[in-house]
Design brief:
Layout lengths: L1 E5 L3 E5 L1 H6 L1 E6 L2 E6 L2 E11 L4 E6 L2 E8 L1 H8 L12 E3 L4 E6 L6 E2 L4 E7 L2 E6 L4 E6 L6 E2 L4 E5 L1
Antiparallel strand pairs: 1-2, 1-7, 3-4, 4-5, 5-6, 6-7, 8-15, 9-11, 9-14, 10-13, 11-12, 13-15
Length: about 160
Amino acid sequence: MYKIKVNNTHSFNITKDDINKLDAVETSKNQFHILNNDNSLEASVLESDFNKKTYEVKVNSNTYSVVIQDELDQLISELGFEVGASKKVNDIKAPMPGLILEINVTQGQEVKENDALLILEAMKMENVINSPRDGIIKSIAVNQGETVDKNNLLISFE
């Protein structure tokens, strides 16, 4: 189950069945046509930060800030911990199965926190995987156009 928080005021619980029942068609990059209770909606993803699981979504003419938490994120929050607060990330792994659309770094390159490392297409969305910290790229374990499974190693830091 996913917990969705919209504009820091409204919270919703969504199951995988709810997602599978969603009648949405991607009309162009990050643009969607959605049918909900016989109502037609136009939606677009304006911004996304995959590491923080935050998105800015425009539905018709309204813009919303959306935070998505999976079960692990919810458990960590309930225990009072901040995700990644004391953990130094050395490896970036695929958060879900998908297709590597673009790799924006090279081996030995110095990167800053939140620099775009690569783009992973999954579930009809392009997800920018940003650097969780400052560092130097030790190795890149994938190639552009390659499909990956969840938890496959993507990038290692020195």
